[in-house]
Amino acid sequence: MLPWDEFQGILIAPSTLQYTQNERKALQEEIFSDFKEPVISLDYESDYFDTIMLDDAVAMQKMTEHLVNEHCYTDIAFLSGPLWHAHAQRRLEGYKRGLEACNIPYDETKVFEGNFWYGGGTASLPKINFSRPQQLLQIVNRVEHSLHLHSRI
Q1: Are 35 and 4 within 8 A, CB to CB?
Q2: pTM of the model
Q3: For the CA atoms of the chain, what is the radius of gyration?
């Protein structure tokens, strides 16, 4: 049990903790029942607290457009987190909008559901058959590196 009376407020960022859905719910229930100061949930829709959501869709759209416009990639896979997760849904929407902005048709066979755990992108590689596997591997490694950094922030 945490000493709740020593905190003036809490910012919950459960996605960075890589908790399961049940663990997130249990944490929020404990805070809700034991803590009476302000609480904000960051990037996770909470049933108990006010929520601030970041716009992953805009970021993913810009990244997709960058890959097309600056690097001439047109065969772009989307390595997703669990599609039930709000982050994955917003990022997929941005990916679709980026393709549309570049006049590239969306192809659901290029969407690969994974997870947000370390190594998840690399684990998805055997499912993918592309004409430029080395370039794809470089992109996956950069994305996973970014996810490692993101999880520490």
Answers
A1: yes
A2: 0.62
A3: 18
* 40 three-class SS: strand
Cβ(44)–Cβ(79) under 8 Å?
no
Give the pLDDT confidence of 6-45 residue by residue, as tens digits: 888 888 876 666 677 788 888 888 888 888 888 988 887 8
Distance of CA 144 to the CA centre of its chain: 11
Q: What is the DSSP string of 47-72?
A: SSSEEE---HHHHHHHHHHHHHHTT-
Helix (H) or strand (E) holding 78: strand 78-80
CA distances from 15 to 32, 75, 86, 98, 99 (A): 18, 29, 10, 25, 27
CA pair distance 139, 142, nearest whole angstrom: 5
User: Tokens 């039930």 sit at which residue?
Assistant: 84
